[in-house]
Write a structure and sequence with these properties.
about 325 residues, alpha/beta, Rossmann fold, UDP-galactose 4-epimerase, domain 1, 7-stranded parallel sheet, 3-stranded mixed sheet, 11 helices, binds serine
Protein backbone atom coordinates (compact mmCIF):
# COMPACT_ATOMS: atom_id res chain seq x y z
CA UNK A 1 0.00 0.00 0.00
CA UNK A 2 1.27 3.49 -0.88
CA UNK A 3 0.92 5.53 2.30
CA UNK A 4 2.16 8.96 1.38
CA UNK A 5 -0.86 10.44 -0.41
CA UNK A 6 -3.90 12.10 1.14
CA UNK A 7 -6.65 12.23 -1.41
CA UNK A 8 -9.79 14.30 -1.76
CA UNK A 9 -12.49 13.21 -4.24
CA UNK A 10 -15.22 15.62 -5.31
CA UNK A 11 -18.34 14.06 -6.80
CA UNK A 12 -17.45 10.85 -4.89
CA UNK A 13 -20.92 9.34 -5.11
CA UNK A 14 -21.59 10.03 -8.79
CA UNK A 15 -21.23 7.56 -11.63
CA UNK A 16 -17.40 7.71 -11.71
CA UNK A 17 -16.75 8.55 -8.06
CA UNK A 18 -18.72 5.62 -6.67
CA UNK A 19 -16.27 3.26 -8.42
CA UNK A 20 -13.12 5.35 -8.10
CA UNK A 21 -13.38 5.91 -4.33
CA UNK A 22 -13.28 2.19 -3.40
CA UNK A 23 -10.29 1.72 -5.74
CA UNK A 24 -8.46 4.61 -4.10
CA UNK A 25 -9.35 3.28 -0.64
CA UNK A 26 -7.86 -0.11 -1.59
CA UNK A 27 -4.69 1.49 -2.85
CA UNK A 28 -4.08 4.16 -0.24
CA UNK A 29 -6.10 2.99 2.75
CA UNK A 30 -9.50 4.22 3.92
CA UNK A 31 -7.86 6.69 6.29
CA UNK A 32 -6.23 8.49 3.34
CA UNK A 33 -9.23 9.09 1.08
CA UNK A 34 -11.71 11.87 1.84
CA UNK A 35 -15.05 11.99 0.01
CA UNK A 36 -16.55 15.43 -0.48
CA UNK A 37 -20.28 14.83 -0.12
CA UNK A 38 -22.75 17.41 -1.33
CA UNK A 39 -26.42 16.51 -1.60
CA UNK A 40 -26.59 12.77 -1.99
CA UNK A 41 -24.59 10.74 0.53
CA UNK A 42 -25.29 6.98 0.44
CA UNK A 43 -26.11 5.40 3.83
CA UNK A 44 -23.68 2.56 3.26
CA UNK A 45 -20.61 4.73 2.52
CA UNK A 46 -17.67 3.71 4.66
CA UNK A 47 -14.79 6.11 4.84
CA UNK A 48 -13.79 9.67 5.55
CA UNK A 49 -16.43 12.21 4.66
CA UNK A 50 -16.60 15.99 4.50
CA UNK A 51 -19.50 17.97 3.17
CA UNK A 52 -19.21 21.13 1.14
CA UNK A 53 -19.80 22.90 -2.14
CA UNK A 54 -17.05 23.01 -4.79
CA UNK A 55 -18.07 26.61 -5.54
CA UNK A 56 -16.99 27.66 -2.04
CA UNK A 57 -13.24 28.26 -1.89
CA UNK A 58 -13.13 28.75 1.88
CA UNK A 59 -14.88 25.44 2.53
CA UNK A 60 -12.57 23.62 0.13
CA UNK A 61 -9.43 25.17 1.61
CA UNK A 62 -10.47 24.22 5.15
CA UNK A 63 -10.88 20.59 4.13
CA UNK A 64 -7.55 20.59 2.28
CA UNK A 65 -5.80 22.07 5.33
CA UNK A 66 -7.51 19.78 7.82
CA UNK A 67 -6.58 16.57 5.99
CA UNK A 68 -3.28 17.81 4.51
CA UNK A 69 -4.51 16.83 1.08
CA UNK A 70 -1.85 16.04 -1.57
CA UNK A 71 -4.08 14.90 -4.46
CA UNK A 72 -7.53 15.89 -5.62
CA UNK A 73 -9.72 13.98 -8.05
CA UNK A 74 -12.13 16.72 -9.06
CA UNK A 75 -15.08 14.90 -10.59
CA UNK A 76 -18.00 17.08 -9.48
CA UNK A 77 -19.63 18.39 -12.64
CA UNK A 78 -22.96 19.26 -14.20
CA UNK A 79 -23.51 17.06 -17.28
CA UNK A 80 -24.66 18.00 -20.76
CA UNK A 81 -28.47 17.64 -20.61
CA UNK A 82 -28.81 19.50 -17.30
CA UNK A 83 -26.27 21.98 -18.64
CA UNK A 84 -28.68 23.07 -21.36
CA UNK A 85 -31.39 23.68 -18.75
CA UNK A 86 -29.16 25.35 -16.15
CA UNK A 87 -26.33 27.14 -17.96
CA UNK A 88 -25.41 29.46 -15.08
CA UNK A 89 -25.14 26.60 -12.59
CA UNK A 90 -23.09 24.66 -15.14
CA UNK A 91 -20.62 27.52 -15.52
CA UNK A 92 -20.38 28.04 -11.76
CA UNK A 93 -19.75 24.39 -10.93
CA UNK A 94 -17.70 23.34 -13.95
CA UNK A 95 -15.55 26.45 -14.44
CA UNK A 96 -15.48 28.36 -11.15
CA UNK A 97 -15.27 25.09 -9.20
CA UNK A 98 -12.27 23.97 -11.24
CA UNK A 99 -10.58 27.36 -10.88
CA UNK A 100 -10.82 27.10 -7.10
CA UNK A 101 -9.03 23.74 -7.19
CA UNK A 102 -6.40 25.00 -9.63
CA UNK A 103 -5.67 27.96 -7.34
CA UNK A 104 -5.55 25.68 -4.30
CA UNK A 105 -3.28 23.31 -6.24
CA UNK A 106 -0.79 26.16 -6.72
CA UNK A 107 -0.86 27.20 -3.08
CA UNK A 108 -0.86 23.72 -1.54
CA UNK A 109 1.21 21.89 -4.20
CA UNK A 110 -1.58 19.50 -4.98
CA UNK A 111 -1.60 17.01 -7.85
CA UNK A 112 -4.94 17.37 -9.58
CA UNK A 113 -7.11 15.14 -11.75
CA UNK A 114 -10.00 16.74 -13.60
CA UNK A 115 -12.67 15.11 -15.73
CA UNK A 116 -13.19 16.47 -19.24
CA UNK A 117 -15.34 14.95 -21.97
CA UNK A 118 -15.90 14.22 -25.66
CA UNK A 119 -18.29 17.19 -25.33
CA UNK A 120 -15.34 19.52 -26.04
CA UNK A 121 -15.84 18.61 -29.70
CA UNK A 122 -18.53 20.11 -31.86
CA UNK A 123 -20.00 20.01 -35.35
CA UNK A 124 -16.85 21.51 -36.91
CA UNK A 125 -14.53 18.87 -35.40
CA UNK A 126 -13.72 15.88 -37.62
CA UNK A 127 -16.40 13.26 -36.90
CA UNK A 128 -14.40 10.05 -37.29
CA UNK A 129 -11.31 9.24 -35.30
CA UNK A 130 -11.31 12.81 -33.98
CA UNK A 131 -7.68 13.83 -33.35
CA UNK A 132 -6.24 14.99 -30.04
CA UNK A 133 -5.49 18.45 -31.39
CA UNK A 134 -8.32 19.74 -33.53
CA UNK A 135 -11.08 22.34 -33.81
CA UNK A 136 -13.00 22.70 -30.53
CA UNK A 137 -16.26 24.58 -31.13
CA UNK A 138 -18.81 22.84 -28.89
CA UNK A 139 -22.46 23.89 -29.08
CA UNK A 140 -23.50 22.93 -25.54
CA UNK A 141 -22.88 24.88 -22.35
CA UNK A 142 -21.35 21.71 -20.91
CA UNK A 143 -18.89 21.57 -23.82
CA UNK A 144 -18.08 25.26 -23.46
CA UNK A 145 -17.23 24.76 -19.79
CA UNK A 146 -15.07 21.71 -20.57
CA UNK A 147 -13.05 23.56 -23.26
CA UNK A 148 -12.60 26.48 -20.86
CA UNK A 149 -11.55 24.09 -18.12
CA UNK A 150 -9.03 22.33 -20.36
CA UNK A 151 -7.42 25.62 -21.33
CA UNK A 152 -7.25 26.66 -17.68
CA UNK A 153 -5.57 23.36 -16.77
CA UNK A 154 -2.95 23.87 -19.46
CA UNK A 155 -2.45 27.49 -18.41
CA UNK A 156 -1.95 26.60 -14.75
CA UNK A 157 0.50 23.89 -15.75
CA UNK A 158 2.52 26.23 -17.99
CA UNK A 159 2.38 29.26 -15.74
CA UNK A 160 2.51 27.78 -12.24
CA UNK A 161 3.76 24.24 -12.83
CA UNK A 162 0.59 22.59 -11.50
CA UNK A 163 0.67 18.83 -12.11
CA UNK A 164 -2.85 18.65 -13.47
CA UNK A 165 -3.97 15.69 -15.55
CA UNK A 166 -7.22 15.12 -17.36
CA UNK A 167 -9.19 12.74 -19.58
CA UNK A 168 -11.84 13.41 -22.19
CA UNK A 169 -14.14 10.62 -21.08
CA UNK A 170 -16.52 9.15 -23.65
CA UNK A 171 -19.99 7.96 -22.58
CA UNK A 172 -19.40 5.78 -19.52
CA UNK A 173 -21.29 2.56 -18.94
CA UNK A 174 -21.61 1.10 -15.47
CA UNK A 175 -23.97 -0.87 -13.24
CA UNK A 176 -23.14 0.54 -9.79
CA UNK A 177 -24.34 4.13 -9.96
CA UNK A 178 -26.46 5.62 -12.74
CA UNK A 179 -25.26 8.71 -14.59
CA UNK A 180 -27.14 11.92 -13.87
CA UNK A 181 -28.31 14.26 -16.58
CA UNK A 182 -26.04 13.46 -19.50
CA UNK A 183 -26.67 12.76 -23.17
CA UNK A 184 -25.06 9.32 -23.18
CA UNK A 185 -27.30 8.17 -20.29
CA UNK A 186 -29.37 6.07 -22.74
CA UNK A 187 -26.51 3.58 -23.02
CA UNK A 188 -26.97 2.77 -19.32
CA UNK A 189 -30.78 3.20 -19.07
CA UNK A 190 -31.27 0.70 -21.87
CA UNK A 191 -29.84 -2.12 -19.72
CA UNK A 192 -32.12 -1.37 -16.75
CA UNK A 193 -35.20 -1.20 -18.98
CA UNK A 194 -34.25 -4.33 -20.92
CA UNK A 195 -34.04 -6.33 -17.69
CA UNK A 196 -36.96 -4.72 -15.85
CA UNK A 197 -39.49 -4.12 -18.66
CA UNK A 198 -38.22 -5.87 -21.77
CA UNK A 199 -38.69 -2.62 -23.68
CA UNK A 200 -37.09 0.79 -23.88
CA UNK A 201 -38.00 4.11 -25.44
CA UNK A 202 -34.75 5.71 -26.45
CA UNK A 203 -34.32 9.50 -26.59
CA UNK A 204 -31.86 9.36 -29.51
CA UNK A 205 -32.25 7.71 -32.93
CA UNK A 206 -31.13 4.14 -33.52
CA UNK A 207 -28.21 5.11 -35.75
CA UNK A 208 -26.73 7.52 -33.16
CA UNK A 209 -23.08 6.53 -32.95
CA UNK A 210 -20.94 7.73 -30.02
CA UNK A 211 -17.66 6.81 -28.32
CA UNK A 212 -18.29 4.77 -25.17
CA UNK A 213 -16.33 2.96 -22.45
CA UNK A 214 -17.01 0.46 -19.68
CA UNK A 215 -16.40 1.97 -16.24
CA UNK A 216 -13.75 -0.53 -15.20
CA UNK A 217 -11.64 0.64 -18.15
CA UNK A 218 -12.30 4.29 -17.29
CA UNK A 219 -11.15 3.82 -13.69
CA UNK A 220 -8.07 1.91 -14.77
CA UNK A 221 -7.23 4.61 -17.31
CA UNK A 222 -7.67 7.34 -14.72
CA UNK A 223 -5.26 5.68 -12.31
CA UNK A 224 -2.77 4.90 -15.10
CA UNK A 225 -2.71 8.56 -16.05
CA UNK A 226 -2.24 9.67 -12.45
CA UNK A 227 0.54 7.08 -11.95
CA UNK A 228 2.47 8.03 -15.10
CA UNK A 229 5.80 9.83 -14.63
CA UNK A 230 5.43 13.58 -15.06
CA UNK A 231 7.80 13.69 -18.02
CA UNK A 232 5.59 11.28 -20.00
CA UNK A 233 2.59 13.61 -19.86
CA UNK A 234 2.66 15.67 -23.05
CA UNK A 235 -0.98 16.80 -22.98
CA UNK A 236 -1.99 19.21 -20.22
CA UNK A 237 -5.38 20.16 -21.64
CA UNK A 238 -7.00 16.70 -21.60
CA UNK A 239 -6.28 13.35 -23.25
CA UNK A 240 -8.63 11.77 -25.77
CA UNK A 241 -9.62 8.54 -24.04
CA UNK A 242 -11.39 5.89 -26.10
CA UNK A 243 -12.47 2.28 -26.06
CA UNK A 244 -15.36 1.49 -28.39
CA UNK A 245 -18.06 3.12 -30.49
CA UNK A 246 -21.53 1.74 -31.17
CA UNK A 247 -24.96 2.95 -32.13
CA UNK A 248 -28.16 2.16 -30.22
CA UNK A 249 -29.24 -0.50 -32.69
CA UNK A 250 -25.97 -2.40 -32.30
CA UNK A 251 -26.23 -2.18 -28.52
CA UNK A 252 -29.84 -3.42 -28.59
CA UNK A 253 -28.83 -6.37 -30.80
CA UNK A 254 -26.13 -7.33 -28.32
CA UNK A 255 -28.61 -7.13 -25.40
CA UNK A 256 -31.04 -9.32 -27.34
CA UNK A 257 -28.56 -12.17 -27.12
CA UNK A 258 -29.53 -12.31 -23.42
CA UNK A 259 -33.10 -10.99 -23.63
CA UNK A 260 -34.40 -12.16 -27.04
CA UNK A 261 -37.80 -10.40 -26.77
CA UNK A 262 -36.30 -7.01 -25.94
CA UNK A 263 -37.71 -4.19 -28.09
CA UNK A 264 -36.62 -0.58 -28.49
CA UNK A 265 -38.66 2.32 -29.83
CA UNK A 266 -37.27 5.76 -30.59
CA UNK A 267 -38.51 9.18 -29.53
CA UNK A 268 -35.61 11.58 -30.07
CA UNK A 269 -35.69 14.75 -27.98
CA UNK A 270 -33.35 17.75 -27.65
CA UNK A 271 -30.54 15.45 -26.55
CA UNK A 272 -30.35 14.21 -30.14
CA UNK A 273 -28.86 17.57 -31.19
CA UNK A 274 -26.16 17.24 -28.57
CA UNK A 275 -25.39 13.65 -29.57
CA UNK A 276 -25.19 14.69 -33.23
CA UNK A 277 -22.66 17.38 -32.40
CA UNK A 278 -20.23 14.88 -30.81
CA UNK A 279 -17.77 12.57 -32.60
CA UNK A 280 -18.53 9.05 -33.82
CA UNK A 281 -15.13 7.87 -32.65
CA UNK A 282 -12.00 9.47 -31.25
CA UNK A 283 -8.29 8.92 -31.76
CA UNK A 284 -6.63 8.30 -28.41
CA UNK A 285 -3.19 7.32 -29.71
CA UNK A 286 -1.57 10.05 -27.56
CA UNK A 287 -2.82 8.32 -24.39
CA UNK A 288 -1.70 4.96 -25.77
CA UNK A 289 1.77 6.26 -26.71
CA UNK A 290 2.40 8.51 -23.69
CA UNK A 291 1.29 6.29 -20.81
CA UNK A 292 0.36 2.95 -22.29
CA UNK A 293 -3.43 3.21 -22.32
CA UNK A 294 -5.22 0.06 -23.53
CA UNK A 295 -8.90 -0.76 -23.13
CA UNK A 296 -10.07 -4.25 -22.18
CA UNK A 297 -13.82 -4.20 -22.74
CA UNK A 298 -15.43 -4.46 -26.18
CA UNK A 299 -19.19 -4.34 -26.79
CA UNK A 300 -19.64 -8.06 -26.27
CA UNK A 301 -17.71 -8.31 -23.02
CA UNK A 302 -19.23 -5.12 -21.61
CA UNK A 303 -22.79 -6.24 -22.38
CA UNK A 304 -22.23 -9.60 -20.70
CA UNK A 305 -20.87 -8.01 -17.50
CA UNK A 306 -23.62 -5.36 -17.46
CA UNK A 307 -26.43 -7.91 -17.82
CA UNK A 308 -25.00 -10.32 -15.25
CA UNK A 309 -24.42 -7.66 -12.63
CA UNK A 310 -27.63 -5.72 -13.20
CA UNK A 311 -29.68 -8.91 -12.99
CA UNK A 312 -28.13 -9.55 -9.58
CA UNK A 313 -28.54 -5.95 -8.45
CA UNK A 314 -32.16 -5.60 -9.56
CA UNK A 315 -33.14 -8.85 -7.85
CA UNK A 316 -31.84 -7.60 -4.49
N1 LIG B 1 -21.62 11.47 -20.49
C1 LIG B 1 -21.52 12.90 -20.62
C2 LIG B 1 -22.80 13.51 -21.01
O1 LIG B 1 -23.52 12.86 -21.72
C3 LIG B 1 -20.48 13.24 -21.65
O2 LIG B 1 -19.34 13.61 -21.03
O3 LIG B 1 -23.07 14.60 -20.67
Amino acid sequence: MIMTEKILVTGPFGQIGSELVPELQNRYGKENVVALGHRHIPDDYQGLLETGDVRNREEMEKIIDKHEITQVYHLASILSAIGEKKPQLTWDVNVNGLKIFLDLAVEHEIKLFWASSIAVFGPTSPLDNTPQHTILEPVTMYGVTKVTGELMCQYYHEKYGVDVRSLRYPGLISYKEEPGGGTTDYAVEIFYKAIEDGEYTCFVKEDTLLPMMFMEDAIRGTLMLMDAPKEDITVRTSYNHAALSFNVKELAEEIKKYIPDFTVSYEPDERQDTADSWPDSIDDSKARDDWGWEHKYDLEKMTKVMIENLRKKLKE
